[in-house]
Amino acid sequence: MRNTFVSICTIAIFNSLLVNHTFAQNNEAVKNYNLGVEASNNVNHQLAVEYYTIAIRNDSEFLSAHYNRGWSNYNMGYFQTAIKDFNEVIRINESYALAYNNRGLCYDELKEYDLAIIDYEKSIELSPLDHRPYFNMGITLMSQGQVKAAKICFDYCIDLNPLQANAYRNRGLILELLNIDACEDFKSACLFGDKECCDWEKQKCN
Questions:
Q1: What confidence tier does 11 reach under pLDDT thresholds 50, 70, 90?
Q2: CB 143 within 8 A of CB 1
Q3: What is this structure's pTM?
Q4: What is the band of 3 on the pLDDT scale with cuts at 50, 70, 90?
Q5: Measured distance CA(184)–CA(176) in Å, rounded
Q6: pLDDT tens-digit profile of 134-169?
Q7: 150 within 8 A of 174, measured Cβ to Cβ
């Protein structure tokens, strides 16, 4: 089912903010956390993990270090390891919505779709105005062939963020599968930067 759709990019979120010593228990943790953020910004995920790990050794309750290490592990494809990191974030702060969102992405990659949906729903419960878990849940539902339910997720995503090109693209592809005109969605995706949808609009809608 996954190969039926051209655009299925999920949305993982990274905490890019540097911190100062007032946010953690010791300066060594903060120093290595900030080095990790710099490495993450340079897309050097392995180095980032090393720095975040040192930060965590110096402050085991350093939520942002656990969170960003999970994000880096996710980007390297270490999904089980990333889940452990996001579990730690949730242990420290069970109301941290984005930790559920990102853990859901890991479960999706592991084809644990039911667990992914549970996490996206929790993320939405905690942060109902965030479009990203709706988008990611739509992707997971697409993977399961639940295209009508996926469309509803993209509807919510677009309502919350009308500039999300991939949401229009994926909803348009679903509409095509349901034999419903998708031109408006392809037009919107094109408007917001999806060049391939511009080509589709020319081919299918004129």
A1: low
A2: yes
A3: 0.88
A4: very low
A5: 12
A6: 999 999 999 999 999 999 999 999 999 999 999 999
A7: yes
Question: Would you state the structure tokens that stand for residue 99, as one six-digit string?
Answer: 């930790």
Are 193 and 165 spatial neighbours (Cβ–Cβ below 8 Å)?
Answer: yes
**Spatial separation of the C-alpha atoms in residues 128 and 134, rounded to whole Å:** 9
3-state DSSP of the chain:
CHHHCCCCCCCCCCCCCCCCHHHCCCHHHHHHHHHHHHHHHCCCHHHHHHHHHHHHHHCCCCHHHHHHHHHHHHHCCCHHHHHHHHHHHHHHCCCCHHHHHHHHHHHHHCCCHHHHHHHHHHHHHHCCCCHHHHHHHHHHHHHCCCHHHHHHHHHHHHHHCCCCHHHHHHHHHHHHHCCCCCHHHHHHHHHCCCHHHHHHHHHHHC
- Phi first, then psi, for residue 194 (nearest 5°) are -90, 100
Q: Are 120 and 101 in contact (CB under 8 A)?
A: yes
CA distances from 55 to 36, 61, 69, 199, 203 (A): 9, 10, 10, 48, 53
Mention every residue, 6+ apart, whose C-beta is less than 8 A from residue 31.
Answer: none
